[in-house]
Amino acid sequence: MLGRLMRAPAALAGALLLTTTATAALTLAAPAQAAPAQADPLPPTAVAMGDSFISGEGAGGYVAVTDQSGVSQGFPGWAADNSNPFFCHRSANASIQVADLPGIAQRVNLACSGAQPADMASASSARPAGRTVAAQIDQLRQVAQTSDVDLVLLGLGSNNSQFTFGGVAAECAGRFVADGYTGWWEVWIHFINWVTGTELNEQACSDADFATGAQIDAARAETTAAVRQVLDVLDEVDADGEHRIVLQDYTNPLPEAYAEQYLEEDGRRDTRDKYRALVDERYAAGCPADVDSLGPAHRFSQNLGTIVGGAAATLQAERPDADITYLDVQHAFDGARLCESPGSPANALATPLRVMDGPSGVHVTSFGPFDKFDIKRVTDTCSDYYQTCQESWHPNVAGHQALGRCLSGAWAAGAPTVRCTRAPDGTISTS
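Now predict its structure.
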C-alpha cells in the first residue's frame, strides 16, 4: 500500500470455549484486548524496468547482473560478446537509486540497456542483439515474492522492432564524420553505421532517417502492449493491489542549436565537403553531428514522447482506477546539453559520443592526429564491439541525478501527467 506502514492482523480462527461459570465471569469482567498490530513483513519497494535511460547507462558504477540461468555476471572485459548481461549497465547511480522517494525502503533495478518492448514478457536473448537476461516481467515476479512493489519506473519506446536509439544515433554521427573526413572522390572508402553495419551516405539526417510516421505508430502500439503486460502482472503479484507506475520518456543529448564556437573551424562549416577540423572539434566536445540534423533529432525526441505519452493515455483510459503517471522529461536537460554552450562536454548532463581504438577500455577523446583510415578503424570498433561505445549520448551521473529529481516530483505529485523542466539556473522542477 502506498504510504502504508502497518498491515492488519489476520482474523482469529475461532473463539475460546468457556467451560465454567467462574471462568466466564472472569472473562466478562476483563477489558477487551486488541491484537497487537504487526509490522509489514514486506519492504515497500521501487522497481526500475525498461531500457538504458532507466538502467543508468552512462552513469558508471555498473553492478553485476544475474543472467537467465541464475549466474551473476560481472564485467567480462571489453572484448566479450555484447550479449553478456553485464552490459545491461545497471548503475548504482541510476535515477531510481538517487531519487528521494519517501516511504520506499528498497530499490531494485531490472532495466537493461538496449531493452525493447518484447523484452518485458520474453528473454531478450530470444531476439537478435539481445542480452542473456530473463524477461523483465519474470524478474518482477521474483522481486514481488519478497517485496511490496509500490512504485515501478518504466522507460520504453526508444528501442523497438522498428528502430533503436543507438542505431539512429550512430547513423547521424557516422554521416557527419564520413563527410568531414572524405571527399566525394574517395568513394572507395566505405564508412558504415557504427551499430547496424550498413553503409552510410554523407547527407545530414532527415526526419525520415530517424523514424517514419508508420514506424512511430508501430512503436507506440508495441510499447502500449508491453506496458499493459506489466500492469497485468503487477495486479497479479502485488498483494495489496496498491502501486504506481511512472512511464518516463526521453531527453535529447543534443541542443536545438550549437553554441557559436562549434559552428565553424578552420574556415569551414559542415555545409561543404571535407571539414576535418570541425569534425575534430565537435567530436572532442561530444557532439559530432550536422547542424541540419539537430531539428530532425528534436522532432524525433518529440515523437518518442508521443510513444510514451500515448501509451500512458491509452492505459489511463482503459484502467481508470490504475495509478499511472506519464513523466515528461524532454526539457529536463535544457541549457545543459552537449555543445549547447562553450565548455562541452564538461558542463553537459549527457555523456559525449565516444569510441575506442579497439576493445581497449580507453576512449578516444580527440580525432586530432587521425587520418581517414584511423577514423574508419575506430568507428569500426563500435560496430564490432558495440559495448565499447554504448554509453554515448546517455545521461551522465549528473544527468541521472536530474532525472532522479524528476522522479521524486512524480512520486510526490501522483498526477496523470508530470512535466519536468530545467531552469537557466539549473533548478529542476516538476509541474
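Residues 71 and 319 are 37 Å apart (CA to CA).
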